[in-house]
Amino acid sequence: MVTATPDTSEGAASMALPKLQVTDLSIRYGGTAALSDVNLEVREHEIFGIIGPANAGKTSFLKAVNRMDLFNPDMEVGGEVRFNGVDTSRIRNVYGLRRRIGVVFPLPVGLPLSIYDNVALAPRLAGQKDPAELDVIVERCLQRAALWDEVKDRLDSLGSLLSGGQQQRLTIARALSQEPELLMLDEFSIAVDPVTTMRIEDVLKELRQEITIILVTNLVQQARRLADRTAFFLEGRCVEIGATEDLFTGEVRDARTRDYVEGRFG
Amino acid sequence: MPADPVGASKPRALQAADPAADFDRLNRDWYIDKAVQIAVFIGGISAIVFIIGIFVFISKEGFGFLLGEFSFKEFFLSPNWRPTSEGNPTYGILALIAGTASVTGLAMLVAIPFSLGAAVFIAEFASGKTREYLKVTVELLAAIPSVVWGFIGLAIMNPIIIQTFNVPIGLNVLNAGVILGLMAAPIMTSIAEDALKAVPDRYREAAEAMGATRWQVIYKVVLPAARNGLLGAVLLGVGRGFGETMAVLMATGHSINIPTSIFDSVRALTATIAAELGETAVGSDHYEALFTIGIFLFVVTFIINLTADLVVRGVRRG
Predict the structure, then answer these.
(1) B78 domain-assigned
(2) CB-based contact A209:A153 (threshold 8 Å)
(3) Is residue B240 a contact partner of residue B301, using CB atoms and an 8 Å limit?
(4) Interface probe, candidates A59, A74, A121, A178, chain B, greatest B C-beta count within 10 A
(5) CATH label of the domain that carries residue B265
(6) What is the ipTM of this complex?
(7) Are residues B171 and B63 in the same domain?
């Protein structure tokens, strides 16, 4: 299926390269298809939502974008993913690609380093050595992830000893510390309380000014609150892509989308 | 509400006539549980019983010497170990301590890079068949008896060292250190690899997803996370080197010396006990002095283990 890019202002829109362009993407794990024939593009400075039930291939999609297939010899990726117009399967230095893409996994991963070092890791990998600069980055990222107030007095304690929700926000802070061009969040709110979730959502809305965000979520209302456009994945296929409001007002091409969004899925 | 009161339709077996009496009945499961508890308690407590028993035994045998002939100054500060001297036997173990320490030290210089390198390769880089073969090989190496290593030192290393370095004797600190290092490396590799494997993969994935290279992941995340286990591996190696007897007896040259170069022959504490205990009269000063060396070995090993334990705990608390 083809994503119709609405031509709003002819010149600017068509000239701007999509942040991510996915063509005929299919993913198989040792012969079992997880995702087939996905075609979509993510535009610069938009929040692109992906909704869908379990096993729809949402996480696999993110893994393919970040070239995480290299971890798993069983994972075969077909088709083409272009990041800033560059075919990611032909990139020789995948580390360079990954540094420009931040990922937040559904299960929080506080690395067994101090809270400070968790957040300072990415800037350090990028060669930042100035302690004053690092302090600024760490504070800013922890602020944005709504964690600073809780941990500012114990930045030296182990990140892996924080509570689940705190670790999740630490993970978000760490992803932000990469200063990514593209931030991919995979069900980030799964271990976070509703109040904190709303705070982080506000931060994501602000971040849209600077970066592009892909938001995979189980909470359709979260997609509605945040996403400019939303894709609905079902059983390894991308069933629908459209402006988020259209999905929620019933302007859909596939009846299953409406059923899912309205919670009548069975 | 259902007409049936809850519970009336329960199966007969679940309804006890007198519930209180049922709670006091000891059935087979209860007795098995108790028996297993007692059995594992005995197993657990036996380690403490044995360690105390061994300590009491060697202390008892060495006690006479400690009270009589023993002089702290001579024992630890004199390099003269002449227990069989007719007129004036001296019991100084300084040279023996120096022998053991120099050989163990060199062994660790050899073993630590080898074993940590091997462990990092097996745990982080090798995959599939390579990894399985390597693991089996390392385990095979760990199973080689120490007398075989001693033989390798005596028959192979000895002439090689004499030829390569043009020294009169090849049974020396270098020989024993290398042999002991190779001997300790496999078990250290195994322990270190276990420690690395215990670091969850999600840490690696998270770090790699951020754009860390394989080496950065290992250096910045995996090694710090496995720090305790790796330290344990190294200390185990030290303990192994300290306590090893047969290989050092065969490869050091077994001559009393405070070494000034790695080409000097030395004698180890353990080898001294092994070589001399059979020739002493039970209860003689010499016999008791050997047991005093045993007490010393015991105490040092205890301190090494205690240190390891404290360090590991300290690290964990931080």
Answers:
(1) no
(2) no
(3) no
(4) A121
(5) 1.10.3720.10
(6) 0.81
(7) no
